[in-house]
């Protein structure tokens, strides 16, 4: 990282940033073109969990090339200055890389959906097995991640 003064090296802090984030951006490669998807997620032990419909472009891409990158950020705030070119941003972010694996068995689907639901709405009714069979669940096992912050 070019700006070591902004680097976050504490894994616990990176985990907290991921857990506080509301949206994860998942970046994949499609025929030598980047494709990025803002997506809901859950996180536990360096694994991100996602769900979607059973078909679509992102799933086609991930089945062909499971390598992916993710990004999350929290506490973003513009910090203005007298000169427009001196404005800056306050934030904390995490970027990481890994490989996507699809989750097929119903027990693992239940566990994965529980992690996603705990991230957003732990008090809502849990989907039935029939509903879980009608969606695709997948996870990104994080191989590497880096954190960055400004204004903290």
UniProtKB/TrEMBL annotation:
SUPFAM superfamilies: FMN-binding split barrel. InterPro entries: Pyridox_Oxase-rel, Split_barrel_FMN-bd. Transmembrane segments: none annotated. This is Pyridoxamine 5'-phosphate oxidase. It comes from Desulfosporosinus hippei DSM 8344.
């Amino acid at each position: 990282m070019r700006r070591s003064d902004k680097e976050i090296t504490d894994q616990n802090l990176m985990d907290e940033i991921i857990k506080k984030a509301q949206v994860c951006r998942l970046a994949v490669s499609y025929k030598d073109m980047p494709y990025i998807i803002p997506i809901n997620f859950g996180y536990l032990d360096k694994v991100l969990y996602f769900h979607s419909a059973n078909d679509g472009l992102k799933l086609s891409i991930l089945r062909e090339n499971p390598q992916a990158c993710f990004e999350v950020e929290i506490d973003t705030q513009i910090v203005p200055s007298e000169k427009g070119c001196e404005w800056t941003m306050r934030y904390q972010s995490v970027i990481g890389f890994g490989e996507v694996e699809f989750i097929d068995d119903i027990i693992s689907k239940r566990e994965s959906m529980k992690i996603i639901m705990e991230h957003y709405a732990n008090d809502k009714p849990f989907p039935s097995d029939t509903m879980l069979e009608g969606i695709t669940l997948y996870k990104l096992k994080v191989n590497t991640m880096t954190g960055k912050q400004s204004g903290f």
